[in-house]
Amino acid sequence: MTAGMSSAQGDAASPTRAGVSQVPLGQVATIRQTAGPMVVRTEDAQPTAWVYVDVGGRDIGGYVAEAKRMVARTMTLPPGYTLAWSGQYEYMERAKAKMQVVVPATLALVFLLLYFNFKNVGETLIVMLSIPFTLVGGVWFLWALDYDWSVAVTIGFLALAGVAAETAVIMLVYLDSAWKERRASGRPAGVPELYAAVIEGAVERVRPKMMTVASTMIGLLPILWGTGTGASVMKRIAAPMIGGMVSSTILTLLVVPAIWSLVQERGLRTAARKADDPSGPHVPGTLAGSTASPSRA
After folding, report:
1. pLDDT tens column, 247-284
2. The CATH number of 94-273 is which of 1.10.10.200, 1.20.1640.10, 1.10.3720.10, 3.10.180.10?
3. Sign of the CA dihedral 131, 136, 141, 146?
4. Residue 170, Cβ neighbours under 10 Å: how many?
5. Which of 51, 80, 85, 214 is deepest in the core (most CB within 10 A)?
6. Residue 220 to residue 233: CA distance in whole angstroms
7. Secondary element (H or E) of residue 154
8. How far apart are CA 110 and CA 10, in angstroms?
9. DSSP letter (8 states) at residue 252
10. What is the pLDDT of residues 62-108, one digit of tens each?
11. How far apart are the first and last CA of the chain?
């Protein structure tokens, strides 16, 4: 359309300022067709040229890193020229910088809340150590779906960490309750009773845990299968949670009770050693191995 209009203007005549005679544009200008940008854009008072790249299904961060190495190896920019990577890559870098602050702050806040709940560093660490094991299922599920790491995936893992911490807390509550009931019943606080309390508390947690996993996965599967606007982002949020719930079930029912029993068993053995230790603090004012004889006036 532009070329046709230019040719027509070149053949036509334009009136002079006085409006008397007509001067063809071809006599005062040279009209030619050239390829160039549709719009001249400027940023910071400098003209810019944009190159749009579709990376397809590749990771944007990995693609840009590889492209930077190739550009630096094969091209030298003239003086006064700069090269910047923008678009989704720029947004991802900004979100990554924010996540480097948000993720540690979130984990620290979760640790404080758990400590205020248990008033015990050992049980708090058990819950915190369960979070990395829970994330394993989400990582494997992302690999199976061939999803790259993105901000949406990070949000999904944060939500998964919260659910995993919640289920681990409930398991510890069941185990502590079973152990306190057995100790309050007057039974000897030994290792066999501890194992019986672990089995009792873990068995009581099977049905609630399976109901939690089933309801969560049933609610997330439609998002994973959905299509339409925003579906690609929602899928990457739901995928880590679906995969992580599977590993969270195994972790909560098997690993958490085992770690808790080891910690409690160590405490029982420490208490038994202190009770069997003959050397202990003496009562003030007495001397071990001596008897006081009455004095006669």
Report:
1. 888 877 888 888 888 888 887 777 777 766 655 544 44
2. 1.20.1640.10
3. positive
4. 15
5. 85
6. 13
7. helix 151-184
8. 74
9. I
10. 888 888 888 888 888 888 888 888 887 888 888 888 888 888 888 88
11. 134
Place of tokens 């880590």: 240
Residue 61 belongs to what H/E stretch? Answer: helix 60-74
218 alpha carbon, distance to own chain's centre: 22
Paired sense of beta strands 41-43 and 46-48, if any: antiparallel
Residue spans of the domains in the chain: they are: 94-273
Quote the tokens at residue 37. 């940008």
Local structure of residue 27 (DSSP, 8 states): G
> SS3 for 12?
coil
Amino acid identity, position 69? R
pTM of the predicted protein model:
0.61
**Residues 43, 44, 48, 51: what is their CA dihedral angle, to the nearest 10 degrees?**
-50
Amino acid at the residue 128: M
